[in-house]
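Ticket #4471: structure export looks truncated?
Reporter: QA, pipeline team
Priority: medium

Steps to reproduce: submit the single chain below to the structure queue and open the exported record.
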Amino acid sequence: MRKLCIFILLLLASIPLSAQNEAKANDLFQSADYSGAMKEYGLLLKRYPSSALFAYRYARCAQELGDYTTAIQYFKKSGNRYDLKHFNLGESYLALFYPEEAIASYEAYLATLAADSERIPYVRTQIQKAEKLQRYLRRVEKVNIIDSVETTVDSILAYCPLSAEVGSMTYTPDSNIIYTNQRADRQLWATIHDSLSVIVSSHSLMGQWSQPDTLPQEVNIADKQAYPYVLSDGVTIYFAACDSNGLGGYDIYVTRYNTYTDSYTTPENLGMPFNSTANDYLMLIDEHNNIGYFATDRFSPAGKVRIYSFVPAWQKNYWRGLSQDSLVAYAQLRYTWSVERSTTTHSNTTAIANTHTADDDEKKIFFVLNDSVVYTSVNDFRNPNALKKYYEWEELQKQITNNTKRLEQLRHQYSEADHAGQKKLTPAILRLEQLQSQYSTQSNDLINQSRALENSNP
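Actual output as written to the record:
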């Protein structure tokens, strides 16, 4: 009886404390301190792991912080109590380039809305964006990424060094960026004209720059254009545009000037992985040094942008025969020479090593069987053949880790080498990169086979 009284007293004492934690978490969320709010909701989830409310709010914090994988996990844990869950799932899946799941979530949300809801147009627009993403994912180009660095928007050019043989990019006093060709007699930049951001061109004649001419509609295809860059051939122009036919935000396009007709070709969207549902812009190619650069703010915090350097491919080559997870990984630029490797992809289809979430401080999830079943030990396996496949997967991870270390060494050597040294190192890096890609596909296959066998559980 005495123990029961103590338990009741402790329970009653914890109620005001939980209310304080919840109030603090809510205040932090309302003030846009999502990191602090997520920590508080995580503590509440430890105390009430089955709470749909805290799971939903924890997911919202993760979503605001750009951790869409965690957001999806906890939105699912929040059950069907919150109609907005489906909408937020759609937004999170779309951000991670999973269009089919996004469409299904948006459709589920539409089913909860009244026929005259003002949210319907936006949701239908998001569905159209997801459908467009589906089409782009069918043609993900193979790109050999060399390196990447995250910086502020106004520091982009510091990480895109160009040889004098291909021209230069410079900032103007008003933070605009001007391209000047190698002969220093032509310039292109974006400027505001009639409330539109358009690309203009100027030529130097007898030491005087001409009045800017607005490029034709074949180039200025939308309300906002920016960051023009011309190859050494003088006719190939890369630029960014917020076009309704793009994936979202700024997309990178290429067009070519026809000297015979004095016109430009219809701009071509570079597709994935150069473009995404975020802002992608500033495509530069240094043909003299055989290196390219482009900028994107996908998966970057506000005010930040990531600059990727890559080996230009003058003939497009697309990924074929890959699973959706692998295509998404390449579209996200997850597999690069310098970005940290992860053989895990979407949580529905892969193993997870050392995953930490709000409610598993005492145990580490290393294998996900499905959305509701996770393993914390090899003893959880019921099918010996499934366990065998898992061990094969583990061995493959060791090889991937060794290759990653070797790639890091080669990348460091590349960054310190001169042009001749970089050229010599490139084949070895490309071979290892290709091998890592093959291992990644094998890794996904092994873990999927393990899961299929475990689910069959003969």
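Status: closed, not a bug. The export was complete when the record was re-opened. Leaving a note from the reviewer for reference: Confidence is low (pLDDT under 50) at residues 9-14, 337-365.
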